[in-house]
Write a structure and sequence with these properties.
Length: 323
Amino acid sequence: MNNRKMDEKILKSQNKKVNDHTVDDAHNDDFTTQEAERIIRRTTIEFGPKDQDQLSRIQEETWAEIRTRLSDQGRTVSLRRRIVRTTAAAAAILAAGIMTLLLLERPVEMIVVENMDSGIRELMLEDSTHVWLRNGAKLSYPKKFAKNERPVTLTGEAFFDVARDTSRPFTVNTSAVEIKVLGTRFNVQTEQNGNITEVALESGSVALHMPGADVADVKIKPGELAVANQHDLSISVSEADPYLSSAWKEKVLIFRARPLDYILQTLANAYGIEIRLGNENLGKTSYTGKFKRSLPLEEVLTIIGMSIPIEYEFNADGSIDIR
């Protein structure tokens, strides 16, 4: 559409002008007619082909209203005055209808943030919600939240410290689940191509909803871990230390009885390096340990190698092979 700057502010002004001049005052007749015709001409030009259905509907409703008004007027009103009032009323109603159409069609401006670095990226949303994005994570959200909801969409892993607002529930959407909160601190991790979402709650309360599945919503309490599985359409809950899930935010990596293949994938994400494991059985071996993110990767692998018999090789392209 050409020149959408004819927004609701301009339309309100035009609408007011028309209504202000529909008084029973003869010297306003010419001005009112010209103003009304100008508005009608301009709305016809401003709207493009894709808007014609909506515009036609507004015009039909406008003339229906005008016919009602005409039938209510007494016979003592002159024909000229009735035409003037009719034209002015048409312009006023048409302007109001177009203003509504513009407001309804106005697209929501979205912001997409993707953390492609090996570090952590912090965001502050317009409602004062604080978000930490782990490397590889992507978050999309409206530039300005609506009056009744605060939806965001996450891929990867992030920690949320949500500003409390009971009138606008905060919702985190992943490919597997919808997480509803009011004000709380929690960690969300999506894995296996988005089919599994883990939610570890630090404080407050959250509810998990699986859209399109016959699964009851699940609420979790602080110190609980919920796992939503898109494969079997299930949501399981267990006790967990939320610090283990969000330690990455403090630049600490903590593993508690985690399989080696999971650990290596976590290290690959944290350091931004491709790590290949050549022994599938070795990948099932569990390991428990804690590492500062500032520790060189080679030193981390050496420490792990003290408990699990692994050999590693750094390649020229920067990748690592584990045997």
